[in-house]
Amino acid sequence: MSNIVLIGPMGSGKSTVGAALARRLGRPHVDTDHFFVARNGPIPEYFSAHGEAAFRAEEARIVAELLDAPRPSVVSLGGGSVVSAEIRALLKSQFVVMLDVTEAQAEARIGDAATRPMLTAGTSAPPIERWKRIYAEREPLYRECADLIVSAAEATIEDRAETIIQAMRRER
Fold first, then answer.
1. Taking the alpha carbons of 144, 149, 152, 157 in that order, is the dihedral positive or negative?
2. What is the pLDDT of residue 126?
3. Other Cβ atoms closer than 10 A to 19
4. What is the mean pLDDT of each run of 10 residues along the chain (172 residues)?
5. End-to-end alpha-carbon separation of the chain, Å?
6. DSSP bridge pairs for 6
7. Theoretical Cys-Cys bridge with 73: which of 28, 41, 46, 102, CB 3.0 to 4.6 Å?
8. Hey, CA dihedral for 83, 87, 93, 95, is it positive or negative?
9. Which residues are annotated as a binding site?
10. Domain regions of the chain by residue span
């Protein structure tokens, strides 16, 4: 049985849905951003000190390590992880779910942009404007990787988890 990997843009609910889904399935839940922080310290500081390329390389190492764990898990990836061709290749052997989100939902959820380097790097534009640009760039990659896309209309955490569980049952 493979891992269930949640992908999608910032603010799509990967961490919260991942935790709920793991609880319902009796699997461990791992959030790659949390794992990164535990290993390397806060993402904004790492990003500032080492740059995006170093961050993406370390992120790819972490994703590879977590996807290779012996027990199938629910793994929530960072929003930008799909930009890595290495990570996209690793996802081919997993059950990948894209959590979609509307612009209004994202704006309400992204919170303090200071904790999200991609929303503040090199721009004075409002965070939601940067989010829209990033989403437009990455959306084709999310869709390319996804075995299932969970709509933004399924707004509750439990609705999203249930949609994923039902889709997995149909896949068997």
1. negative
2. 74
3. 17
4. 91 93 96 95 90 92 94 95 95 96 82 57 72 92 96 84 92 71
5. 10
6. 76, 97
7. 28
8. negative
9. 11-16, 33, 56, 79, 116, 138
10. 4-171
CATH for the stretch 4-171: 3.40.50.300
Query: Tell me, what's the pLDDT at 48?
Result: 87
Which residues does the annotation place in the binding site for ATP?
A: 11-16, 116
Question: Would you list which residues are annotated within the binding site for Mg(2+)?
Answer: 15
Give the per-residue SS3 of 11-75. CCCHHHHHHHHHHHHCCCEEEHHHHHHHHHCCHHHHHHHHHHHHHHHHHHHHHHHHHCCCCCCEE
DSSP code per residue over 77-137: PPTTGGG-HHHHHHHTTSEEEEEP--HHHHHHH---GGG-HHHHTT--S-HHHHHHHHHHH
Residue 65 corresponds to which amino acid?
A: E
